[in-house]
Amino acid sequence: MIRYLTAGESHGRQLTAILDGIPSGLQLGLKDIDADLKRRQGGYGRGDRMKIESDKVSIVSGVRFGKTTGAPITLIIENKDNVSWRKKMSIYKKDSDESIFITKPRPGHADLTGHIKYDQPDIRNILERSSARETAARVAVGAVAKKLLKTFGIEVISTVLSIGNIRADLNGLTIDKINELTERSDLRTADRGAEEKMKRRIDRAKKDGDSLGGIFRVTVRGAPAGLGSHTQYDKKLDAKLAFAMMSIQAIKGVEFGLGFKYADSPGSKVHDEIFYGTKRGYYKKSNNAGGIEGGMSNSEDIVINCVMKPIPTLYKPLNSVDIVTKKGFKATVERSDTCAVPAAAVIGEAAAAFEIADAFLTKFSSDNMKEVKRNFSAYKRYIRSL
């Protein structure tokens, strides 16, 4: 039902996203998007780029007088750092300068494979687009999706579970308390003791010219049963969510609910038993499935854990080979973060929100919000009648 494309380079003039398929009549303002852009830029361990950029969105189409019109929504985020990069990122042939070409690919990045695939003599043509700076546009798109979902009581939140080898202990905390503590944390984690250890671990990595990855969790609350489908592989909600999460730069693993822990126990210990109450209807006392069964949401919280690898750009570079001379060198150093797991968690929210919004509008389809609300209300009545 909805789709989007992003365009722009890390040091280009701007990032642009075009979001198509949002129904007319959704109240939407700049603050709805800017709040998440600010959250994406936060987090202990971020690099100097965050001191330059203070991301704000411009909405240049698809919204009039504070409401969506049903037309494609164009979102623009200016790259303030472009001021000093105008000539280096010029579109004009006359500004080409081979002396500034990057020819030393960084291990762990798209550099070498992109050079081979696109036949680019200057690796900057690869790293500018493959940079995680692109995710600012995706967070803007996700913020619109979150605003739509919030209208129907659906919330998308995140928390950091680990950084390096330091893990947060969330035992005994309700999801509301986890979210409250997370939003007050520099590292988006709900465990204050673990947070201090994480900060010390990040400081040590920065001193060593190294980087750290970790695990974050995205939770979708309030999604009704029946989003997605079991009928085809490309309609399964968990498949679409996994695809979205894996598309985020540096994400190398995704699991739902118990995830890989399913391998440790027999089925009798892990499958969520079904109960029925006259007031509650069907319900479960556990949520090991992570809110999705058979490719469909089951009305429980959708719980997604994602693994982010350490950022490949290191201030103590690894060995690489010059693509021109074929001689060994230390890899090129680009400005980067020591740890961006908290930012990745916010990006994960955006990625999940878009897929949930797409599944929601597929099921309760309409071109305007009034009809979507009518369709959703009718479905809730149907659920209560079972």
CATH superfamily: Chorismate synthase AroC
Structural class: alpha+beta
Strand order of the largest sheet: 8-7-9-15-10
H/E element sequence: EEHHEEEEHHHEEHHEHEHEEEEEEEHH
General shape:
globular
Average pLDDT taken over every residue: 95
For the largest beta-sheet, the strand count, sense and barrel status come to: 5 strands, antiparallel
Beta fraction of the residues? Answer: 15-25%
CATH class: Alpha Beta
Radius of gyration from CA coordinates: 22 Å
Which range best describes the helical content: under 10%, 10-25%, 25-40%, 40-55%, 55-70% or over 70%? 25-40%
Query: Can you count the beta strands?
Result: 17
CATH architecture: 4-Layer Sandwich
Number of domains: 1
The end-to-end distance, rounded to whole angstroms, is 28 Å
Uncertain residue segments: none
Query: How many alpha or pi helices?
Result: 11
CATH topology grouping: Chorismate synthase, AroC fold
